[in-house]
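ok so for the tutorial part 2 we go from a plain amino acid sequence to predicted structure tokens. step 1 is just haveing the sequence, like this:
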Amino acid sequence: MSDTAASAPDATLSARARQLALGLLYPLKPGRLHDAPHLAARIVLDTLRRRQGPPEAARIAARPAGYGGIAWDVSTPTVLEAARRGFYPHSHVGPMKWWSPPQRAVMMLDKVHIARRFRRTMRASDAELCFDRDFSAVLDACAAPRPGRTPLTWITPRAKALYLRLHREGHAHSVEIRNAEGGLEGGLFGLTVGPVFSALSMFHTADNASKFAIVGLYHHLAEWGFTAVDHQVMSPWVETLGGTILRRDAFEALLKAPAPAAAAPGAWTALYRPVDTAAWQPSGQSAGEAGARAAA
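step 2 — the prediction. this is what the tokens look like for a chain of 296 residues:
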């Protein structure tokens, strides 16, 4: 047996032990510690009751904010119905849990503004954007430890199995940025929810690759008739692009709008490269407004 083969199980056990330890410590971080007893109590009650089916808004907890119960049932119909109600399954350790935060970071696709400097960066790039070419590789890259950050991920084996299944069934999609040689350099994955695309995680191994993926995704979704992208938590880059914070009720109303044809299950095909997206102007902007924002 080779040294590599012999060390693989040990590496897997080490990664699992690290995930368990960090996951158990996560609720004890400053800012979350005061909610830890409430979360523990809710988990005990939910374990005793063991409710099936999609979560209900009436059961959303005030503490921890947005907690909707244990996700005992993560079948495709249940996950999709939960998403239409504004919930997503998430957990670092233990059973997956339903969450619907009181505020949501959202990009309205008619409000995207791209700085002139970044448009120049896209025009100078030979990168290619594609969809669904290697969903599994994007999932693994999003879950991988990142330099300078705690190696804790919510994309556990259970979560991977869930989203791989949703991808096979045509509901989850990957956005991939590849270099001229076809190498994967960045991207993201997410789930279609009516007129909204829920972007769940992203990664990059080359400068600007994840930014190309996000802006390219906006371009395609806008052309296909989607109205918004749900980012869950605001990032500096999404805020720079014009992202906004919606209250839970406003976000739930957004999900009730009619879905475009592209939201139907099935693989997506890219229409635009980053160099093409460099010239894109969202339909909700006037020419003067677009020019002023591009100059920012």
